[in-house]
Predict the 3D structure of the following.
Amino acid sequence: MRKLKIYIDINYPRRLVDALIKIHSLQKNKQFELVRGSHYNKNSPELKDAIYLLIDYKKRGEDITTQKHFEDGCRVIACKAGSDEKLDMFEFSMTVFRVWPYILEKATEEYNPFLYTFKYKGKRLSSKR
């Protein structure tokens, strides 16, 4: 069984990413590998074995980075942070922890390209495409 790589946007707080990596190091069967940063290459054969977690600052619709990842065949989960609000890193981290089980569920259930979003301070994923 191949590991599913979860690429986490560099704008996610470093301590949050480190905590998620440490939690996933406890896996008996190493099903997920978390990587900080977007090592995105639309021609990569590993594209179907990866999920991209992005922060989307556009208030309505999706920003260009989120759109391009999805259009190129990626599986994308974006946090809709909005442009008006300054992110509180603690609250952002708690938001990610709340939706983390749903992220893992979608990662293992859906193999075709998808775009899900969740709101900053939200509690669930929303399907966009």
The first helix runs from residue 14 to 24. The longest strand covers residues 50-56. Helices lie at 14-24, 64-71, 89-109.
